[in-house]
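Please describe the entry underneath.
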Amino acid sequence: MSGEDFVGLVGRELEGSAWGVLTLHAEMEGVGFQAVAERLLTVMGEAGATCLPLEMLSARVRAEGEEKIPVADVVPRPIRGRAGTVAMPAGLEIA
């Protein structure tokens, strides 16, 4: 997937529902994909998305009540084009 295709994918997803977490890695997006990361943040801002540290998101979710926190088994899965595996919810498949 090209950088612009990725930005488009995230943009389309924002139209239908909110993403809880989208992680940007400084060692990846900050080096070879800086322009893509900047474009993504611009598109997300134009769509009205709010970017905040995971610590803040966690505090907001916990303040709404522990029983509202989704629970999922987390398993290691490979992602095409990336060495090794990443942690993701069981049952989530990425083509």
In short: Residues 3-51 form one domain.
